[in-house]
Design goal:
By secondary structure, the chain is α/β, with parallel strands linked by helices. It folds into three domains: about 5-175, Nitrogenase molybdenum iron protein domain (Rossmann fold, 3-Layer(aba) Sandwich), CATH 3.40.50.1980; about 215-325, Rossmann fold (3-Layer(aba) Sandwich); about 330-460, Nitrogenase molybdenum iron protein domain (Rossmann fold, 3-Layer(aba) Sandwich), CATH 3.40.50. It contains 21 helices and 14 strands. The protein has helices at about 25-45, 60-70, 85-95, 110-115, 115-130, 145, 175-200, 225-230, 250-255, 270-275, 290-300, 305-325, 345-350, 370-380, 390-400, 410-415, 425-430, 435-440, 445-450, 455-465, 485-500; strands at about 75-80, 105, 135-140, 160, 160-170, 215, 240, 260, 280, 335-340, 355-360, 385, 405, 420-425. β6 (about 215), α8 and β7 (about 240) form a beta-alpha-beta unit. α2 (about 60-70) crosses α7 (about 175-200), α7 (about 175-200) crosses α9 (about 250-255) and α11 (about 290-300) packs antiparallel against α12 (about 305-325). It starts with about 25 loop residues before the first helix and ends in a 6-residue tail after the last helix. The model is unreliable at about 1-10 (pLDDT under 50).
Length: about 500
């Protein structure tokens, strides 16, 4: 092909060859920039800033976008990426309860470099985009297609009325799977907002009453919207469909609100779309008593609710939530970390219930929507670590020596090895109500049950002391093979000789 005749952005043009997942973040970033993805990556970096270190340890970020798409009715999802990545993502999605097929467009080096992969994706989209089956088709570029510049933005915007949403969700561009939920949610909101601005759109399946409504931003426990609805009722406010939505038409309902509540504060793209629609956005959330009262004030003022109605809502919350907190005290020292984005809210709830929480680590970033929670926690002596790494979470736990360590799987494993009760945040904390009166009473029981087991953990650690560690890992009490005399020294010399042979000339 004559390169001088290649049209910029032409999907049939030769694509720069990405080095593959093994190339490393910087190599993939540079390849993506050369391939014309620089603007998109710059936007991702602005929306989801990294730091203070590179990025937290998390599952593949694309899982967040995949999860959002798979939970929506009449939405098909197609992945474009390496087969191993697609296998892992589909396995994880089905492990978490997805009951829907995931589309996949395979490729090899030649089809990727020559632009055939884009044509294959386009063919797949036309094949699947049937209005009797789907409202939308989502195509997600993983690392290698993004780094190679596969231009999903050149896909048609709709086919026979079926919307086509193409997004890049590379692991080297989106820090966590929690934020990847926002990548797709924000893209869908933008599409729906432009549709609504262009003319009449479909009503949500369950539109609710005619009262002004509040949209909740964030993937919440199913009982939480019910509790929030009860808090809002005295102000004459109802709930719009929450974002991420469960159906395309719910996007219109979410945008048709008087105020949006960024309960999960990292939904930057979604917040931008609500702002573009002229909707005010309020941070924090109705957890515990202090946060709930402040949140009701903010919501009521943003929705221009009369002061008397705001006071009535606060009085109702004071009575119900105050009684639950008094009945369910928590008297424990707790270290808290996770990657769901609700960590600061959970810490506030624990502290209001009486717990001591010296450390909160979250894999998500500092944003304007969690600033109130950060200030509240730090005023009470809690260290808040944004973009926390596993190493920081473990170091904090070792320093604090809590009665209960709440965190990710590897942190909980480390805690239990030390005889400290541990609780997996995602499966045990996120799987419970957090907001309103139900949230106020949800954690006391599980904290009490776990801390009561501390002595059992210490007994187990003492019983198994020295077994299955280091070079003896995997062996029981007897039968550990004897190490041949001098084996370690010989192996050390072999490695040193290998390093010397592989070193460039002139280097030692």
């Amino acid at each position: 092909m004559d390169d001088s005749r290649v049209i910029p952005g032409d999907p049939a043009a030769p694509r720069p060859a990405a080095s593959g997942c093994h190339g490393g973040r910087e190599t993939l970033l540079e390849a993506a920039r050369v391939a014309g993805k620089g603007e998109g990556l710059a936007k991702l970096l602005a929306d989801y800033p990294k730091g203070p270190h590179d990025q937290p340890q998390s599952m593949c970020p694309a899982f967040g976008s995949l999860r959002v798409g798979l939970r929506m009715r009449r939405v098909a999802t197609i992945l474009s990426g390496s087969a191993c990545c697609v296998y892992g993502l589909t396995f994880t999605s089905h492990f978490y309860g997805a009951r829907r097929s995931v589309g996949y467009v395979p490729f090899n080096s030649e089809s990727l470099v020559r632009g055939q992969l884009f044509e294959d994706i386009r063919d797949a989209v036309f094949k699947i985009a049937k209005p009797e089956d789907y409202d939308a088709v989502v195509v997600i570029n993983l690392c290698v297609p993004t780094a190679s510049g596969v231009p999903l933005e050149l896909l048609p915007k709709q086919i026979e009325g079926v919307r086509i949403i193409g997004i890049d969700v590379p692991g080297f561009g989106v820090p966590t799977h929690a934020e990847a939920k926002d990548v797709l949610a924000g893209a869908m909101l933008r599409y729906a907002r432009l549709e609504a601005e262009a003319g009449p759109v479909q009503r949500p399946r369950n539109p609710g009453g005619e009262e002004p409504k509040v949209s909740l931003i964030g993937e919440l426990f199913p009982a939480d919207p019910v509790g929030v609805s009860q808090l809002l009722a005295p102000m004459g406010l109802g709930l719009a469909p929450q974002v991420p939505t469960r159906e395309w038409r719910d996007l219109y309902g979410a945008l048709d609100c008087v105020v949006a509540a960024a309960v999960h504060p990292f939904y930057t793209a979604s917040v931008r779309e609500f702002a573009a629609a002229g909707r005010p956005v309020v941070g924090s959330g109705p957890v515990g008593l202090e946060a709930t009262l402040a949140w009701l004030d903010s919501i009521g003022q943003a929705a221009v609710v009369p002061a008397a109605k705001i006071d009535a809502a606060k009085a109702h919350a004071q009575k119900t939530i105050g009684a639950v907190l008094a009945a369910c005290p928590i008297k424990s020292r707790i270290s808290l970390s996770g990657y769901e984005g609700s960590e600061l809210l959970v810490a506030r709830l624990l502290i209001e219930a009486g717990a001591e929480v010296p450390y909160v680590g979250t894999a998500c970033p500092k944003t304007p929507w969690n600033e109130t929670d950060r200030a509240w926690l730090e005023a009470r002596g809690t260290h808040v670590q944004f973009r926390a790494s596993l190493e920081q979470d473990v170091a904090a736990m070792l320093d604090i020596r809590p009665d209960l360590a709440v965190g990710t799987t590897p942190l909980v494993q480390k805690a239990k090895e030390m005889g400290i009760p541990g609780l997996y945040y995602t499966n045990m904390v996120s799987a419970r109500p957090l907001l309103g009166a139900a949230g106020a009473g949800s954690l006391a029981g599980i904290v009490a049950n776990q801390t009561r087991g501390a002595e059992r953990f210490r007994t187990m650690v003492s019983f198994f002391e020295g077994v299955g560690k280091g070079p003896t890992a995997g062996y029981g009490f007897a039968g550990v093979p004897k190490e041949p005399p001098g084996a370690r020294d010989r192996y050390r010399k072999i490695l040193a000789a290998k390093r010397k042979a592989e070193a460039p000339t002139g280097e030692v």
